Amino acid sequence: MGSTDALIAWARDPETKPPPQVMDRMRLALLDTLAAQTAGLSADGARQVADLVTHWGGRPEATVHATGARVPLHHAALANATCARAWDLDDVLEHAFCHVSGSVVPAALAVAEAVEASGRRTVSGRELLTAIAIGAEAVCRLALAPRESFSVTGASRTYECGTFGAALTSARLMRLSEERARHAMGIALSMLCGKQQAFLSGAHTVSLGQGLSAQAGVLAAVMAERGITGSAPDIDVLEGRFGYYFTNHRGQYAPDEITTGLGTEWRVLESSIKPLYPCCKFTHTSISATLDAMRDLNGRAKGAADRIASIEVDVTDREAYDLACAPDDAKRRPATQAAAQFSMPYAVAVAAVHGRVGPEHFVPVALDDPRVLDVVDRVVIRPDLNGERATNRGSLPMPAHVTIRLRDGNAITRRATVVKGHPQAPMDFADVAAKFRDCAAFALPAWDGTDAAVETIREVLSLPSMSALARVLPRAPV
């Protein structure tokens, strides 16, 4: 049996029942992705997508949370997943360089709502979380297999693997046959999107790619259910001659990563929930080290940010350097929100100046903050990509080593290996609920439904229908 059929058999099997610790992690993934989505309801780029699908209209199957409109389910997945990625707050599998739940959760919610709206049946909270676990685990396993860096291939595992994960989640919730699920995976292959070019451009396509992958996964399942073909039993979607790993990763992959231990070993438990740093995960340990250093310096004498001579940041990971540090000029004067989110100098300068890093520091008006830009010019990136301090592929989180030197000659060095939310420093439900509240306060300060949403998600495993959850989810004012 090829890897595609193995994944499909596992995803469809009624006996595939994630253990309690996985279900708990998927409850956090649901709350965390909705936190990220809430923060992005009115974000630049995401709101335009939501307005567009609302303008298109169509069969009222699932809700666009940014507008409250009900549209075809794949359009709802597109809009909601774009919102979920707008602030780069969704969870990641660090050593696979891949976001995990940003496509899967919006796809699952859209399909569940549409299934119930059709009158076919209700979808319980347990069924929803099981489908999310299946899609998220598939994302992790598929993303762990490539052996060529994205710095070489230009391929984004986040969007590619997210498409397959959303397709499997949708197939589970729609109860597709084995044959139809295989066609859904084949159709998904034909719709893969997402290239690293988006990150170099600092364009809306960074968040749009997440939406497109959710849309493609859902649409692949819908098309397959309608009898549209995309595969054949004797040609593996993932490992065939022109399958995913050969066309997108040059045939350089480890097949055992996809299926070994499937159903007994859960890679999704290795994923990290992000703290409220709305920027690339490659910057997070450096942000944390900078914040630690500044707290120490300000504890000795206030106003340390105004006395900074330099901030030296070691970068020992090729992917981190390519994505967050180069080209140097563009990273020091990011022109857009997306460009700032993928700038190590900017993120570190924000941490030094403000003593925190939040969405408000990445909105367009904040990008011209003279105090931050002054410190940006004092950030020294020290790359060591091949030397003794260099790390190999799969080494994330990149250990941060940050030295802040003051004009009076004093200096302080801090190191951070992980940040809160990593499996070695996990967040619990209260931590993620606090993140949800912060995201809601940022995007919807007048909304009074935070407590109801949090408590409903807390009890999601006991919900007999997703209608109870749909009623309490946040929506942006029209």
What does this structure look like?
The chain has 478 residues and is α+β, with helices and mostly antiparallel strands. Helix content is 51%, strand content 7%. It is globular and about 70 Å long. It starts with a helix and ends in a 6-residue tail after the last helix.
Question: What's this model, at a glance?
Answer:
α1 packs across α8, α2 runs parallel beside α20 (429-443) and α3 runs antiparallel to α4.
- Label the overall shape: globular
Number of helices: 22
Count the E strands.
8
CA-CA gap between termini: 50 Å
Q: Report the uncertain regions.
A: 389-394
- What structural class results from the helix and strand content? alpha+beta
Strand order of the largest sheet: 6-5-7-8
- The fraction of residues in strands falls at 5-15%
**Helix coverage percent of residues?**
40-55%
Q: Summarize model confidence as the mean pLDDT.
A: 93
Q: Main β-sheet: number of strands, strand sense, barrel status?
A: 4 strands, mixed
Rg result? 22 Å
The helix-strand sequence is HHHEEHEEHHHHHHHHHHEHHHHHEEEHHH
